[in-house]
Amino acid sequence: MSVYLLRRLLQAVAVVFAMSLIVFVGVYAIGDPVEILISPDADQLERERAIAALGLDLPLWEQYFVFLARAMQGDLGRSFVFNEPALRLILQRMPATLELAFGATIMALIIGLPLGLYAGLRPHSPLSRAIMAGSILGFSLPTFWVGLMLIMVFAVQLGWLPSTGRGPTRELLGLQWSFLTWEGMRHMLMPAINLSLFKISLVIRLTRAGVRETILQDYVKFARAKGLRPARVVGVHVFKNILIPVVTVVGLELGSTIAFSVVTESVFAWPGMGKLIIDSINVLDRPVIVAYLMIIVLMFITINLVVDLTYSVLDPRVRLEAKGT
Amino acid sequence: MSGAASPTLEVRNLRTHFFTRAGVVKAVDDVSFTVPRGKVLGLVGESGSGKSVTGFSIIGLVDPPGRVVSGEILFQGRDLTRLSEEEMRDLRGNRIAMIFQDPMMTLNPVLRIDTQMIETVLAHARVSREEARQRARDALGMVGIPSPEERLHAYPHQFSGGMRQRVAIAIALLHRPDLIIADEPTTALDVTIQGQILAEVQKLSATTGTALIWITHDLSVVAGLADEIAVMYAGRIVERGPVAEVLDRPLHPYTVGLIGSVPSRNRRGEPLRQIPGMTPSLLNLPPGCAFRARCPRADEACRAEPPMRELLPGREARCFRPHLEAAAETAA
Ligand SMILES: Nc1ncnc2c1ncn2[C@@H]1O[C@H](COP(=O)(O)OP(=O)(O)OP(=O)(O)O)[C@@H](O)[C@H]1O
Ligand code: SF4
Ligand SMILES: [Mg+2]
Asked: Do A157 and A60 belong to one domain?
């Protein structure tokens, strides 16, 4: 097991290194921040001084090595715009994005699992057909449009829910969280639904497919032949087996949810990392963009690892193989 | 409520059909047999003849589009076809147990053996978890699993196929059922393990009075194990009788063909005599004897449906032209 972990960690380091290079070169290619940052009527001397201060006078490879050397010490550069460490800027906004993403994931499981179970157990009932049709909508409607519709209906027409911001927050572990206050929860509800729509559909489809496949297995028939109650057959024998693919996919999806919460955050003015990165791209704030992308890469790697480990807890067959290597 | 003379199981005119899009599949069509207490019935026939569906009909696990359409399944005098789902659930795994064909597939891969055994105990007995665990351990010991206490913690994939089937048998035995339906439980195992399991099961049914239905397409297994034999073909029982007599002097041409295709019965060097042709599709079976197209003795009369008739004392078959001549003819 520890050999396995070590190998995974080495892989992770290699991926981070490769990504840093790609990201750095990629961001460099997007455009020259000088045009945006320095006022057009600055004279030549002022321009050169500013460029040198930002470290933009060095050749690309040297800029990269400076970045790399500092990154090793946990310094991902200072924002051109805010003149603050990019890392701190992002970390400040991370709790908002994280709680939104987790809220959306939990909602996807709470709504998706029962609906998928029902649709799998009663595939021909009208309700199941309605659920499946709904899941197609969840896949195909664009997030920003659904977000605007939610605001139209629940904020503008009915006035039930607030449409922008996080609402009041409360501190936990030194960070500010919305879900700890009632108002904060109300603020989070619509963005979380908006972000979870795709995932609800995904969970429904995965669960349904898993149930359809699992109930045909001999071990389910054997469980029934043992005289177990239907609730136990479905709740334990079927459910534990479908949990394996669902946890895998939803876990892996968590990364993309965080990365792509950009749209939802923009629609609901949710002050998370997604909103920050959109603003930073607009002004070509390179250090923030690079730092953001590096953090996303790290997050994907961590999530993949955690999913793999969870998977081996859920599926005893995987555990054995891991031990064997 | 059931006298000593009444059999554990009596199946009368059972019909189980599958209502598929392509049409009605008459998987079990007018099947009758009895299994007395402590006796073993061997249910044999080619693949697709309806043996498993017969077993699932008895234990009440025929899934849509299939359904028991008519007939009676009298278990200790109670008609199982009239019981509610909850009453059936109470019998399943308790008074009637089933063992499946493929031991690699019958145990849930993500649950530990103890979980899968204890839940079976608790489904039918009001006992503590500890007591349930004790019973599970005893059952594992009974089917010859070494160090049962440790093995309880294992997952199915940590067992060999033979061991898994022993676990499945141990689960079936947990409540000392009155009837066990064993659906080809040893087909997937190698010959030595098959022999061991057969011997153990036989001993159990003799000592506990458990009635046993042993489903197989291997006549040599039935020969050493069963008291009675019922031969199925295309959803019907075509021949029934005491095992020694049927194997010695089969009456139905299909039984004759089956016996001829058993390797050990063939002289060395002779090719196996397979029954020519294929099992007919059960979908829209043509009228008349279902074996007609493959039967060497078929004639015009066989265009009608042959009824089940008692041809010799205790011997029944569904055939217009049974092998009633000399026993010598079949022995050749
Ligand atoms: N779900 C189903 N839908 C339609 N037909 C079915 C279904 N299940 C079984 N059948 C039909 O019932 C017939 C009998 O099947 P059964 O499984 O009882 O055969 P078997 O004698 O047990 O064969 P084997 O030796 O291969 O196990 C088959 O011809 C099959 O086509
Ligand atoms: S009834 Fe006719 S076709 Fe059918 S088995 Fe007997 S002889 Fe053969
Ligand atoms: Mg079968």
From this structure: no
pTM: 0.81
Domains of chain B and any CATH numbers: 9-85+179-188+216-266+273-331 (3.40.50.300)
State the closest ligand 2 atom to the C-alpha of B299, by its place in the atom list counted from 1.
Answer: 2
Query: pLDDT by residue (tens digit) across B39-79?
Result: 999 999 988 899 999 999 999 999 989 999 999 999 998 99
In terms of domains, do A104 and A147 share one?
A: yes
Residue of A nearest to B57 (CA): A225
- Residue A322 domain flag: no
A317 vs B contacts (CB less than 8 Å): 109, 155, 157
On whether any CB of chain B is under 8 Å from the CB of A236, the answer is yes
The ipTM, to two decimals, is 0.88
**Ligand 2 atom 1: residue of nearest CA:** B319
Q: Answer yes or no: do A60 and A132 share one domain.
A: no
Q: For residue A158, what pLDDT is reported? A: 85
Count of the separate structural domains present in chain A: 2
pLDDT at B331 over 60: no
Q: Same structural domain for residues A63 and A96?
A: no
Higher pLDDT residue, B55 or B173?
B55
* Site residues for ligand 2, CB cut-off 6 Å: B 252-253, 289, 291-292, 295, 297-298, 302, 306, 319-321
8 Å CB contact of B108 and A232: no
Residues of chain A with pLDDT under 50: 322-325
Are A100 and A67 part of one and the same domain? no
Name the pLDDT band for B332 (thresholds 50, 70, 90): very low
| Together in a domain, A247 and A171 | yes
pLDDT in tens, B216-250: 888 888 888 889 999 999 999 999 999 999 999 99
- Can you give the pLDDT at residue A32? 72
The answer as to whether A231 is a domain residue is yes
Q: In this structure, are residues B144 and B176 in contact, taking their beta carbons and an 8 Å threshold?
A: no
Domain range for A211 is: 87-314
Ligand (nearest to CA of B183): 3
* Cβ contact, residue pair A320, B157, below 8 Å: yes
- CATH number of the domain to which A261 belongs: 1.10.3720.10
Chain B positions in Cβ-Cβ contact with residue A219 (cut-off 8 Å): 105-109
| Closest chain B C-alpha to A208 CA, distance in angstroms | 18
Tell me: do A170 and A292 sit in the same domain.
yes
Which among B61, B90, B111 has the least Cβ separation from residue A225?
B61
pLDDT 10s digits, B101-153: 888 889 999 999 999 999 999 999 899 999 999 999 988 888 888 888 989 99
A159 shares a domain with A54:
no
DSSP B196-235: HHHHHHHHHHHHH--EEEEEES-HHHHHHH-SEEEEEETT
Instruction: Report the 10 Å Cβ neighbour count for A57.
Output: 13
